[in-house]
Design brief:
By secondary structure, the protein is mostly helical. It folds into two domains: about 5-155, no CATH class; about 185-330, Serine Threonine Protein Phosphatase 5, Tetratricopeptide repeat (Alpha Horseshoe). It is built from eleven helices and nine strands. It has helices spanning about 10-20, 30-35, 95-105, 150-155, 185-215, 220-240, 250-265, 270-275, 285-295, 300-315, 320-330, and strands spanning about 40-45, 50, 55, 60-65, 75-80, 90, 110-115, 130, 135-140. The strands form four sheets. It has a three-stranded antiparallel β-sheet. Strands 1-2 form a two-stranded antiparallel ribbon. The protein starts with 10 loop residues before the first helix and ends in an 8-residue tail after the last helix.
């Protein structure tokens, strides 16, 4: 079941969610009077007065939820500090409801937050949230931020079948993200960067594994090629599902990482093409990284183009101007 956090601020929606499940699958245990703000649901940590299901005052409050039967949780609880979520000193109904749902589910029902949910709506649970695809799963013990096996299983399984199935199977349906005829407003394009981020996290993990094995092992040509293709796979799938001409990449850092993966994993021309898109960045960190890469690989023409654009924008940078002159003079690897 999907719960809309914005609607979780309204009584009618909370009742609907409560009444949609029964027995062991029920995850809301509030009465009508509690939902309507007539009966208390607890005690407010600010002043010790009754806490009702409504916008109220709040302060940094230690929260603990019991955990039983989890061998990875020796404390028998998850604990964190729930900070104010509204105006620096208040709390919203949706936050009180998320807390209630976690307690009420008692770890019987898996709870996920979509990757498009703002960090401010996750109640500070980051130590217990693990990315498994396009959602973060709430775990009953502390976990690394990403489960790369689950991430790969879900992201890389592209479901083509258009029928619905009640039985779980990994994968996602990516629809119209490659269709230039479908209008994606700026807000949707911003949200879609979360999808790119998931693919890129998987790609960077594959890239790290590739570099470690490349540096620490004697690899056969077949093994090296297999590792390269494995590294490139998430980025290529992302590019096919969400081509940049339909869903623009709005982060220069993200674009640089994508170019680095392409280049270092063997798709050199694609990597260089992405690097060239960053020649106009005007950012010292990106320009410095590109110059170092070009020097390491002997890409004199690319270095000249980058420095020409940099010195045009920053004509008083004498060091860059001198470096450009040396490249033009045929010194392919001048000291920067």
């Amino acid at each position: 079941m999907v719960v809309n956090l914005s609607l979780l601020n309204t009584g009618w929606y909370i009742k609907q969610m409560r009444d949609s499940r029964s027995g062991d699958t029920k995850f809301i245990g509030l009465s009508d009077r509690q939902i309507e703000g007539k009966d208390r649901i607890g005690r407010n940590p600010v002043d010790g007065k009754p806490l009702f299901l409504r916008v109220d005052r709040w302060k940094d409050t230690p929260v603990s939820i019991p955990v039983a039967g989890d061998p990875q949780n020796s404390e028998g609880k998850v604990s964190w500090t729930l900070k104010p979520t509204l105006g620096g000193g208040g709390i919203r109904v949706q936050d009180l409801m998320i807390l209630h749902i976690i307690r009420q589910s008692n770890w019987r029902i898996p709870i996920y937050f979509a990757v498009t949910v703002s960090p401010s709506n996750r109640l500070g649970l980051e130590r217990y949230l693990q990315m498994e695809g396009l959602a973060f799963r709430l775990r009953s013990h502390r976990v690394p931020s990403v489960n790369y096996d689950k991430l790969a299983e879900n992201l890389m399984n592209v479901v083509e079948d258009t029928t619905w199935d009640k039985d779980y199977s990994p994968g996602y349906k990516y629809r119209n993200l490659d269709n230039p005829e479908v209008y994606l407003n700026p807000n949707i394009q911003k949200l879609l960067q979360n999808y790119r981020s998931a693919f890129l996290q998987l790609g960077m993990e594959e890239y790290r594994n590739f570099r470690e094995k490349q540096a620490g092992s004697v690899l056969t040509d077949d093994d090296l090629e297999r590792l390269k293709q494995q590294t490139l796979a998430p980025i290529r799938v992302m590019a096919e599902l969400m081509p940049e001409e339909v869903v623009p990449i709005n982060s220069q850092e993200m674009k640089l990482q994508i170019g680095q993966i392409y280049h270092d994993a063997g798709d050199v021309e694609n990597g260089k093409a992405i690097f060239r898109q960053l020649h106009d960045s005007g950012r010292p960190d990106i320009t410095g990284f590109l110059l170092q890469t070009y020097a390491e690989h002997g890409y004199a023409a690319e270095a000249v183009d980058l420095l020409e654009k940099w010195t045009y924008r920053f004509p008083t940078d004498t060091a860059a101007a001198n470096l450009l002159r040396r490249y033009r003079a045929g010194d392919s690897f001048p000291d920067s």
